[in-house]
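sorry for the late reply, my laptop died twice this morning and i had to redo everyting from scratch. anyway the thing you sent over, i finally got around to it. pasting the sequence first so we're on the same page, its 350 residues, then the predicted structure underneath. double check i copied it right bc i was rushing
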Amino acid sequence: MVDFGGWDMPVQYPAGTIEEHLRTRQHAGLFDVSHMGEIDVRGGDAIALVNFLVSNDTSKLIDGQAQYSALTMPEGTVVDDLLVYRFAGDHLLLVVNAGTTEKDWNWITSHRRTEAAQLKNVSSDYCQLALQGPDALEILGRLTKLSLSEIKYYHFTEGQVDGVPAIVSRTGYTGEDGFEVYAAADKAEQIWNKLLDAGNFGSDTGVLPCGLAARNTLRLEAGMALYGHEIDETTTLLEANLGWICKLNKDDFIGRGALQKQKEEGVRRRLVGFEMTERGIARDGQDVVIDGQRLGQVTSGSPAPYLKKNIGMAYVPTAFANENQQIQIDVRGKLVGARIVKIPFYKRQR
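ok and here's the structure:
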């Protein structure tokens, strides 16, 4: 167990990180992500307020739809990335990262423009369990009467899971199909145990509980950004290849001017994926060396259990951010060869 955003979190369970990772890719993994924060936004100005705070276009959402977005700063950099859930035209739920919940709350409330939007930090009200993998639909289906197959990707519905009122969304952070279940905090243990039972935990192909390490390797294979690594208050969305959640043609939002200018002028550095071509494992914070110069830094690096490669992501000058560009990683004083590759590293078959 380790401290993670003020929560005690498991790094791995007895099966180990590699098995947790592979089981999620091939069958199903269960993650307790109740540490995530939730902020309830209601009132006539709910959508207008959130649309001013985030980079994506909240006004385009329909009831029952979720959207990946980011809270942006005036410089176009990132306060946090988050999910926006639309329940109604006057009701949104923001799901934010655990370690930034208080910071996000302070940022949102300090940029509140009218009293018509009512804000409430409801993080302690919810548990959140993520069931991910190709068997997720079948497993969760044993505990609910909801028509799970009809829930589109990045949409959600409300109903009961094991008799408990819940929000069920077709979202996740692993690169696999799956669901995230939000319910009352005191129902976490009940739903967790029932999902393990429904998923035949203990069998060779049954669901496995998964810790932080597998969550990280899975999202890295899928090329997904992690706050505090690929994105933070020093990185812009365009540098991080997140222009697709940056809607410059919508109404004004914080950071729009800076991002528009950067788009017109071009970014000076860009986030890239790489795989090691020589023996060695890249780790966060290690230097990227190109033509003998230290020109970048690794943001995430790890073995990729499913791909059986050592991979990572890093920022490098735009001139070198090209597929097959040869680079070196300074691994504890030794320069180890690598090459830039397309991300995501892994993409599930649909």
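DSSP finds seven helices and 19 strands in the chain.
thats about all i looked at so far, will dig more tmrw
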